[in-house]
């Protein structure tokens, strides 16, 4: 009996030491070792985080920027709370099933504001256009942006246009910034997340990344997949009304749900356990991912968000989201647990578990 106890104690000690090593490794500040920028630096994963930390955060460091949120939370001289966000869009091809670069440019900035707790109000739009770009296509992109903004109830109120020589850009790049107003009684922060909270998804994942990938025509895969590009601000308001104690939200764009989950737990005294069977993925998306060897957890979305809600409000939150057409597939997909801190793990369909790390490399470049 003593030998059995000793062996069990030794196994537990080995597990503790292993977890300590993992934790030390994860807590190390990443170092930028690259001499040039690569596509991986724009994928939203480890390389992106390293570039941001070593170059941009190092140069621009301030308390608000260090939050590294989807939008900065600011307070005007009159005391009004606002969110301010900016983004750029280089998606290729510029038109794909379900949308275009114009739709994504508007929806992406609206969504960054919405998951920060703001009600989007105004956008700016800047264009970098290559000499020789067809005016007719530019009109189509601008019309898509106008339609998307009108449907979402926001205005594009300022902008800029630059033209570069032939070969200096790939057609057109679009940059948008946005401002939204945050209700005074609303607060969302990782600091509010605690063990026992539930993690939910507003719908199925992976449609945008797969739609763009297949639209490039490089793959002999015939699948009926359309981008999920859409504004989420209505869904956010529905969620917050049903679950007023909601802790935190993030839209799962570059790097997908897997990267967002890691951003949630980074440097936090808790872990996230995801349930593979609960994560909604459309069969055609899952099939395309399987054929390409890509984990749908890392595929970009443009109309979905991850939220952490209090356990007591999780059922009401999902029910409320499912009542909206864009939230029909909303689901609780995970739980916040105390140990091991800073780790995201996935309970697999086969009864085992695996670590879900932040995205490494860039399996789907120029998705947004």
TrEMBL record:
Write down the Gene3D superfamilies for this protein, in alphabetical order. Answer: PurM-like C-terminal domain, PurM-like, N-terminal domain
An example GO BP is: protein maturation
Pfam families with a match to the protein in the record:
AIRS, AIRS_C
Residue span, PurM-like N-terminal domain = 70-182
Task: Indicate, by first and last residue, each region the UniProt record lists as having compositional bias (Low complexity).
Answer: 1-11
User: Could you tell me which SUPFAM superfamilies the record lists for this protein?
Assistant: PurM C-terminal domain-like (SSF56042), PurM N-terminal domain-like (SSF55326)
Residue span of region Disordered: 1-23
Where along the chain is composition biased (Basic and acidic residues)? 12-23
Q: NCBIfam families, per this entry?
A: hypE (TIGR02124)
Return the protein name: Hydrogenase expression/formation protein HypE
As recorded in Swiss-Prot or TrEMBL, the protein's gene is named: hypE
């Amino acid at each position: 009996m003593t030998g059995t106890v000793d062996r069990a104690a030794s196994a537990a000690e080995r597990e503790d030491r292993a977890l300590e090593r993992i934790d030390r490794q994860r807590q190390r500040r990443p170092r930028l070792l690259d001499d040039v920028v690569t596509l991986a630096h724009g994928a939203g994963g480890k390389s992106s985080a390293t570039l941001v930390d070593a170059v941009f955060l190092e140069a621009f460091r301030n308390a608000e920027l260090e939050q590294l949120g989807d939008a900065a939370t600011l307070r005007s001289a009159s005391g009004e709370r606002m969110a301010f966000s900016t983004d750029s869009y280089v998606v290729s091809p510029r038109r794909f099933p379900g949308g275009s670069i114009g739709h994504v440019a508007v929806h992406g900035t609206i969504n960054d504001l919405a998951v920060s707790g703001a009600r989007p109000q105004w956008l700016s739009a800047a264009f970098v256009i290559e000499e020789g770009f067809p005016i007719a296509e530019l009109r189509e992109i601008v019309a898509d942006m106008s339609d998307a903004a009108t449907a979402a109830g926001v205005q594009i109120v300022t902008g800029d246009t630059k033209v570069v020589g032939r070969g200096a850009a790939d057609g057109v790049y679009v940059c948008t910034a946005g401002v939204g107003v945050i209700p005074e009684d609303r607060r969302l922060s990782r600091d509010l997340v605690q063990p026992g909270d539930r993690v939910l998804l507003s719908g199925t994942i992976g449609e945008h990344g797969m739609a763009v990938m297949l639209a490039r025509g490089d793959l002999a895969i015939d699948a009926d997949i359309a981008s999920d590009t859409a504004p989420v601000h209505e869904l956010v308001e529905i969620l917050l009304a049903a679950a007023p104690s909601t802790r935190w939200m993030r839209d799962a764009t570059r790097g997908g749900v897997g990267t967002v989950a890691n951003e949630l737990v980074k440097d936090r005294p808790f872990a996230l356990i995801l349930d593979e069977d609960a994560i909604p993925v459309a069969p055609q998306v899952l099939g395309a991912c399987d054929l390409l060897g890509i984990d749908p957890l890392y595929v970009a979305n443009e109309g979905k968000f991850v939220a952490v809600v209090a356990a007591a409000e999780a059922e009401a939150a999902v029910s409320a989201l499912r009542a909206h057409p864009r939230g029909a597939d909303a689901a609780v997909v995970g739980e916040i647990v105390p140990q091991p801190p800073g780790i995201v793990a996935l309970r697999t369909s086969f009864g085992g578990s695996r670590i879900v790390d932040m995205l490494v490399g860039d399996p789907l470049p120029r998705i947004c």
